[in-house]
From TrEMBL:
Pfam families: EamA (PF00892). InterPro entries: Diverse_Substrate_Transporter (IPR051258), EamA_dom (IPR000620), EmrE-like (IPR037185). GO terms for cellular component: plasma membrane. Residues 6-137, 150-279 form the EamA domain. SUPFAM superfamilies: Multidrug resistance efflux transporter EmrE (SSF103481). The chain crosses the membrane at residues 35-52, 64-83, 95-114, 121-142, 148-165, 172-195, 207-224, 236-257, 263-280. The keyword Transmembrane applies. It is found in: Cell membrane. It comes from the Bacteria. Its main location: membrane. This is Metabolite transporter (DMT) superfamily. It comes from Vibrio maritimus. Keywords: Cell membrane, Membrane, Transmembrane, Transmembrane helix.
Amino acid sequence: MNVSRRGELLLFAATLCAASGWVTSKYVLYEMPNSMFVAGRFFIAAALLLPFCFQELKHFSWSIFKNLIFVGALLAASINVWVHAVSTTNSLAEGALIMSLAMIIAPLTQWLLLRQKPSSAFWVSLPLATLGMMLLTLKNGWHFDPSLGYFFLSSCLLSAHFVLNKRVSAQLSALPSICIQMFVVAISGGILYVIDGAPSIEVSTSGWLYFALATLLATTMRYLTQTIGQGTTSIATASLIMILEPIWTLLMSVALFGSHLSITDTIGGALILLSLYVYVKLSRRYGN
């Protein structure tokens, strides 16, 4: 098997791991405070990755650490908002589709933060993505679902993280960068847990099992497979494969929670997936 094909298979596995995180997180958050879930999940995941990148981290300067802490704080904000949304929503599938908009939002974020104008692919895809998001979030007589608004806010924060992380990590290996940022996310969860008054918890055996799956499979394995896969695959190909994440999430949500999409939801989701596909294909064709 050639290197490129192996990378594609790893990315495919990453989409399954990422989708499982939506389901396992929903189960865990029935029993565990949001902040404790974030702190524990990301601290353990970072600790598991640390041995693989410790030697590289020893050579990082303080300025590099400061930059990684800053972008890690953006990731922490996105994750904490996402966890709140997951804990309150009855629409995991719709949330996953909205979170996938981060890739479409990123060029606009780059324009706002770094003054780099979006490509033509962005302007073609944006109307499709906007219409799809409106159909997903404004329903039941055009009544706005607050949890989907939180998913959109998390997606915007994630796009900002993507843009700035790409700039900060341009000359760094991916694994130590991710490890440091995971520790920052864990610390943010710990701070919020203390602010919440350090509530006591009673988690069942099944709850701890789902926590372990969310930590090992949906966090550690997801980032490992995604990082290695992206290293041997073109950006366009990787982006196309990662579009599978909301599809897997939808299928898992239907199978495990009995979720269903209305006709409006289905059309909205299809438009978002189409916008992502168009964006990636046009970017590949015109090289921007």
